[in-house]
Prior knowledge:
Largest sheet: 8 strands, mixed
Number of helices: 5
Structural class: alpha/beta
Amino acid sequence: MTDVLLLxxxxxxxxxxxxxxxxxxxxHAGVRPGDSTQPLPVPAHADDSxxxxxxxxxxxxxxxxxxxxxxxAIRLREQIPARALIDLHDRILDAQDESKIPLxxxxxxxxxxxxxxxxxxxxxxxxxxxxxxxxxxxxxxxxHLESETTPHRWAYLVPPPSYQPEGQFTGTYRRRQPAVxxxxxxxxxxxxEDFALALADAIRDRWTGTHLISA
Length: 215
């Protein structure tokens, strides 16, 4: 049985993944620690919950004990530093169960897409200013992952700019391989729920590397 820890389980992407969880896994929802006198809330379709505090290494190690796959669906907000997502990835690595060496599956960001001539979509005038810090951080994380020479296992799934929380659920998705020029992908779209199907398949089939996911 594969043990999966879902970070961001109470968010929209995490919720849709819970709805479409693959068979044959134990899915542990990572939730913020609350009142120690009360049991942790368990989201619908999760097997149980584990307390996750990104700033507490001990609690992080407890949360990752026995975990085979970590899905990072956390959506950091506001004015995050360029290295924020790299730091989050490294915190997961530092807390991993070394007897397992888990696969880390990240929900990526369109700011990381290549637009030719060494540029990224976050540098395009069309990129939304309000999400610019997150776009820069996702480009930095993608570069960090793709340049790693360590045995750590990871997957980075990138939605297109039109990533739609209320989009129509079609029950399908398209997976494309990364390229030096990904501008054609910018015209694509996908709903959160269809994107969750790709996450479920990434868990089931243990994808690695970068994947562009669209409708």
